[in-house]
Amino acid sequence: MRHTSRALLLLVILSTLFAACGSTTTTTTAKPTTVATAPAFGKPSTSFQLTGLVQHTATFTLATLQALPKVTVTTTTTPLGQHTFGGALLYSLLQQGGIVTNSTRKNDILRKLALISGTDGYSVAISMGEILPTFANKQIIVAYEEDSKPLPQADGFARLIVPGDMFAGRYISNVAQIDVRSPGPLPKLGTATPTSAFYLLGLVTNPAKYDLTALKALKATTVTIQSQDQSGKTVTTTYSGVLLNDLLQQAIVQVKKTKNDILRKGIVVVGSDGYSALVVGGEIDPKFGNVQALIAFEQNGQPLPQADGYARLIIPGDQHLGRFVSNLRELQVVELAA
Ligand SMILES: Nc1nc2c(c(=O)[nH]1)N[C@H]1C(S)=C(S)[C@@H](COP(=O)(O)O)O[C@H]1N2
Ligand SMILES: [Mo]
């Protein structure tokens, strides 16, 4: 009897934890099989591999992480509560590996992502746009310290910390691998002609074509962006359009039943010239990064400048405008963990 009630209590605690981690399953009663096949954090890790599109694959240990410049981040808004984490910037670590890019493609780095996996096989994607210092510059770290002490044993030697994420679904404990990837195939290059519609396709239940009328029929959102002009002066621009997240809600992204599958999906945004950039699910999902990425069709109350076409991607928080793909031709929802 005592065993049963303890087991029940554990189940309730575990399922509450799953919900707090931003899992899409918010049921408060879990079946025993769920717990058996989906341990919260996996085996404690003592090293991880850097693999994929890097010049030097590497094994990282506590010592090699500590050799990189130390950055501290204090989390306040996640279910983890307030903690100060110390570690190395994910960006420094990737830079040390040397990200391999296709030099024939403009800003090819903006198509890249890091897929971070834990020892339990749970994985999440971070886009390069999120961590590049000249873009969103998020201080995402691979932490080895929590409140000036080693991480709690259950989290292993290294844990990903993603400041700004509302829920901790991308705070991967027991980091086992960081794999640099690029969603293929590369879009065909074309001439930069003004477009009047784009296709939303890929892993969606309702693929659709969106022209200006279709966009204007949806809920409008306005965002204000500060940027620097050539002379370094700050310019404020207001964009109106449809939130990328709202479009994805309408199209219905085909997520698997695995925990937080949206964190392993990406959106490749393509212009008429074949120029493309990547946004990841965790970046724009309201439960995680909640970045108000917008498919804009108005700038300061006017249609976009003619050269930009009828619609363009806007990503508040990006300092450089490299992901502001203009003359939209296609939005492809893709798998990043395959
Ligand atoms: N379709 C398309 N969109 C694009 C590009 C491109 O080459 N093709 N260049 C990007 C880059 S690198 C920048 S800096 C900005 C420039 O935007 P602006 O002309 O509005 O300043 O557009 C972005 N959007
Ligand atoms: Mo650019």
Characterise the protein shown here:
- Helix content is 17%, strand content 32%.
- It has 338 residues and is of the alpha+beta class.
- The strands form four sheets. A five-stranded mixed sheet has the order 2-1-10-5-6.
- β5 (113-118) and β6 (123-127) form a beta hairpin.
- The structure holds the ligand Nc1nc2c(c(=O)[nH]1)N[C@H]1C(S)=C(S)[C@@H](COP(=O)(O)O)O[C@H]1N2 and molybdenum atom.
Topology summary:
Layout: H1 2-20, H2 32-37, E1 48-52, E2 58-60, H3 62-66, E3 70-75, E4 83-89, H4 90-97, E5 113-118, E6 123-127, H5 128-131, E7 141-146, E8 149-150, E9 159-161, E10 175-181, E11 197-202, E12 208-211, H6 212-216, E13 221-228, E14 234-243, H7 244-251, E15 265-271, E16 276-280, H8 281-284, E17 294-299, E18 302-303, E19 312-314, E20 328-335
Parallel strand pairs: 1-10, 11-20
Antiparallel strand pairs: 1-2, 3-4, 4-7, 5-6, 5-10, 7-8, 7-9, 11-12, 13-14, 14-17, 15-16, 15-20, 17-18, 17-19
